[in-house]
Write a structure and sequence with these properties.
Elements lengths: L1 H37 L17 H7 L2 H34 L5 H13 L2 H14 L6 H26 L2 H9 L4 H29 L3 H6 L7 H11 L3 H35 L7
Amino acid sequence: MKPARRKEEGRWAWRLTGFVTLCVYIFMFAPIAATVILSFNASMFGGFPMTGFSLQWYGKLMANEAVLAAFRTSLWIALVTAAATTAIGVVTSFALVRFEFPGKQTLSTLVILPALVPETILGVGLLVLIKAVDQPRTMLLLVLGHILLAVPYVVLITQARMVGIRRVYEEAALSLGASRFSSFREITLPLLIPAVVAGALLAFTISFDNTSASLFWRPAGVETMPTQILSMLKISISPEINALGTVMILVTVGIPLIGGILMQSLTKLRRRGEPKEEAK
């Protein structure tokens, strides 16, 4: 009787876990689904029941110069952030994994620290600092702030991949006369490409979707996509905001998804192109 009772209790525990998990996912994704659905509502009042299907809010969004300017600003900042953090992350992870030097643990802690501090606290702290030194807020400071927030994630991703790359490959290249830079470029970097692409896409998403840091560090008169949404929400909640939110969802979710699919396709093509070993 006891084994049967334990089996029944375990079954109910799994059912309860599944039910709680389902409730959590509904709580997280139901507002996103509602935003996407209401962006196609024909009525100017964003709510259910819908009065019809319409794309007029996307048309108005494309004609809104303020939104287009904010989109261009966010896109430019995200691209610069992705490029800079990828370069910094690759070099930093290579140094932390391959070399021993004084202060290595301290450097590793400092690199990861921005990911551990809440963005709001970090944003307020840096805002107070630049005010204390009488430094005006500029686009350069905004980009540097986004790079600061994204670097830890790129370093963690590339560092995890670097640990899995055996040192013997580089040592073999060095023993054959290659320089350390040539060994890194020809051997290590190609093996790091999946982590490099993943880190770049993550940095792009973090920068493009950043709200709190952009709110504190942006110059006067400059809006990014998240801050533009906040500015529009101060006036009213219209289906145009739902359309803008849908565009944000497509960008922040679609770009990493497309990148992952492309990387998988390229990996499969590379494996197919490699010569197969002849059976002995």
